[in-house]
Design goal:
The complex is a heterodimer of chains A (245) and B (262). Chain A has 245 residues and is α/β, with parallel strands linked by helices. Chain A is 37% helix and 25% strand. Among the domains of chain A are: 79-180, P-loop containing nucleotide triphosphate hydrolases (Rossmann fold, 3-Layer(aba) Sandwich), CATH 3.40.50; 194-233, no CATH class. In chain A, the strands form two sheets. A six-stranded mixed β-sheet of chain A has the order 5-6-7-3-8-9, with helices on both faces. A three-stranded antiparallel β-sheet of chain A has the order 2-1-4, covered by helices on one side. The chains are: A alpha/beta (245), B mainly alpha (262). Chain A binds chain B through residues 53-55, 70, 72, 74-76, 78, 80-82, 91-92, 94-96, 123-125, and chain B through 153, 155-156, 158-163, 165, 169, 173-174, 177-178, 180, 254, 256-259.
């Protein structure tokens, strides 16, 4: 496919202790697609993302990424405690060697995009969990990622914050049109966020089914209360249960 | 206003203990009777005959000055060597495997056992005293710095790795700043030890400019117990001041973002 930014073919991950974390995983994500992988804990979905990002090398199959601009959001906000919000957001651009003026402009734009204006001088310890995660998102946005990988970024947040950040993320996705790959264990979050949901089962980690999500982007928060949405959530949950057997 | 009052309240218990100690002290002095109470001079005598006596005061001031210079030079050298050593060990596994055991052994050598040798090797003056300080305060610097460098969160390392940055950059922008609170814990511990080292070295070498250690020995030999008590106070005060100084520097450097768990 023309706009494919990441292509995983028959990916296998076997750890030295013999555990097969991934087996025959096939997935491609194109610009404008937001694919979410759901699965039970320990099924290898985080390993999949680590392989996709290059943090780990697959023991089999091929991983092809067609862009250098890859954003990665960790489970924790992974902020530097000694830097304020602005300097944290500037970090990646700084590591890339981008000049101070450009860096500042990029950081300012990213901070505005995630709605953190006015908090530039705050230190991570002065922020709520949701705001720390926004800072983390803003930091990745300064790289103008074409491929954006998310490793359960909202897993530790309360439901209200999580839903708000889901909407923020969708807004950013609609504006920036990257290729998104998102890991979560929440079915509701997966269906709400994505254009496609892939269900994974564990031991060995492999895809058992996939669902296209028909709702238009940006999402209307009200779809959460429609029968269509509930039905799709039900189907995905069912596939998860089937896969676990 | 409330803050002032709570500060006063916080200071109350230790002040009470101080009052009890001073009271006991006078009691012991009185109990010993006129024949033996020279062994425990009262705080009043220590102040009048020790600190207010111009000759003794002059000796002690010069002694403190000298010992402070020795201790600060020692801690500075120990900090440079200790941090560099810890950085080397945090960067390469073989450096840690091959040299860390010796850092531990260094810590285990009783300092008194090697002080005479240090005198022989380095002369009996400033340089030898500094070497004693360095030896005694090196391990806490190494161990705390290494701990700080190694306890950086794994995902932070991965964040840097994804940007394919050089190891020097990871060290300067991630590991070193993250280790700063631990480095200051090391500095505070080492500062106290360095004062001990300065006094012990001085006590043994007895040559060159007299520091607090030489004075302690001189006063003990002369049976001048008021002056001895005065010198002991000043030595203790020097240790506490060093500890406080590095605690203050730590607050300045990392207090803004780092809050100890306690």
């Amino acid at each position: 496919m023309a706009g494919t930014l990441i292509d995983l073919r028959d990916v296998e991950m076997r750890f030295p202790n013999g555990t097969v974390a991934l087996s025959k995983v096939n997935l491609d994500v194109s610009r404008g697609e937001f694919v979410t992988v759901v699965g039970p804990s320990g099924c290898g979905k985080s390993t999949l993302l680590r392989v996709a990002s290059g943090l780990e090398t697959a023991t089999g199959g091929t991983v092809t990424t067609r862009t250098e601009r890859i954003g990665y959001v960790f489970q924790d906000a992974t902020l530097l405690a000694w830097r304020d919000v602005r300097r944290n957001v500037e970090l990646l651009a700084e590591l890339k060697g981008i000049g101070a003026a450009t860096r500042r402009a990029k950081a300012a734009a990213a901070i505005e995009l995630v709605g953190l204006q006015g908090f530039e001088k705050h230190l991570p310890r002065q922020l709520s969990g949701g705001m720390r995660m926004r800072t983390s998102l803003a930091r990745s946005l300064t790289l103008d990622p074409e491929l954006f990988l998310f490793d359960e970024p909202f897993g530790s947040l309360d439901d209200i914050t999580r839903e708000r950040l889901n909407d923020e993320l969708i807004r950013i996705f609609v504006a920036e049109r990257f290729a998104g790959m998102f890991i979560t264990h929440s079915v509701a979050e997966a269906v709400y966020l994505s254009t496609k949901v892939v269900v994974m089962s564990g031991r060995p980690g492999t895809f058992v089914s996939s669902f296209d999500v028909p709702f238009p982007m940006p999402r209307d928060p009200e779809i959460r209360y429609t029968g269509e949405y509930a039905e799709l959530v039900g189907q995905v949950s069912h596939a998860l249960r089937e896969g676990r057997r | 206003m409330i803050r002032v009052r709570s500060a006063a309240l916080n200071a109350m218990p230790p002040l009470l203990v101080l009052a009890v100690i001073v009271g006991l002290w006078y009691a012991v002095h009185a109990l010993l009777g006129p024949a033996r109470n020279f062994l425990v001079p009262t705080p009043g005598q220590v102040i009048t005959d020790g600190f207010l006596d111009s000759r003794t005061r002059g000796q002690i001031v010069r002694g403190v000055w000298h010992s402070t210079a020795v201790a600060l030079t020692g801690i500075a050298i120990a900090a440079v060597i200790g941090i560099a050593w810890a950085v080397a060990m945090a960067s390469t596994a073989w450096a840690k495997r091959s040299t860390y055991p010796y850092a531990v052994i260094l810590q285990c050598i009783p300092i008194l056992a090697i002080v005479p040798l240090i005198g022989v090797w380095f002369g009996y003056e400033f340089r030898a005293r500094v070497v004693v300080c360095v030896l005694i305060s090196l391990f806490p610097m190494v161990a705390n710095t290494l701990f700080g460098l190694e306890s950086v969160d794994k995902s932070l390392h991965e964040l840097f790795r994804l940007q394919r940055v050089r190891r020097g950059t990871v060290l300067m922008k991630l590991m070193f700043p993250a280790a700063l609170p631990s480095i200051f814990v090391g500095l505070r511990t080492s500062a106290g030890l360095s004062v001990v080292g300065a006094i012990v070295g001085d006590f043994f070498f007895q040559r060159g400019t007299p520091g607090l250690g030489s004075l302690l020995q001189t006063y003990a030999r002369l049976l001048d117990y008021t002056a001895l008590f005065a010198a002991i106070f000043v030595a203790a005060l020097l240790g506490v001041t060093m500890f406080g100084l590095f605690g203050f520097l730590s607050k300045l450097a990392v207090g803004r973002w780092y809050q100890p768990a306690t």
